[in-house]
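Key result, reporting period 2: structure in, sequence out.
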């Protein structure tokens, strides 16, 4: 499950993960919200953190923004 397309835009799964992070959430909460498997959520979150689109606050993730 790639969260980023080759051109750097968000894929549908990437958009779903970022949308689920309107409020800081744990990977388990994101999995429940999106209906994605936990292992896919964790992988996607790692990818989005590396891209600078998601930040980690303790055990929670949040959409990175200004």
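The corresponding designed sequence is given below.
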């Amino acid at each position: 499950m790639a969260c980023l397309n080759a051109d750097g835009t968000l894929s549908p799964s990437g958009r779903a993960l970022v949308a689920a992070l309107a409020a800081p959430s744990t990977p388990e909460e994101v999995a429940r919200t999106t209906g994605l498997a936990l292992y896919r959520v964790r992988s996607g979150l790692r990818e989005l953190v590396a891209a600078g689109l998601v930040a980690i606050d303790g055990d929670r993730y949040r959409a990175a923004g200004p």
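Strands lie at 54-57, 60-63. The mean pLDDT is 92. This case is discussed further under Risks and Mitigation.
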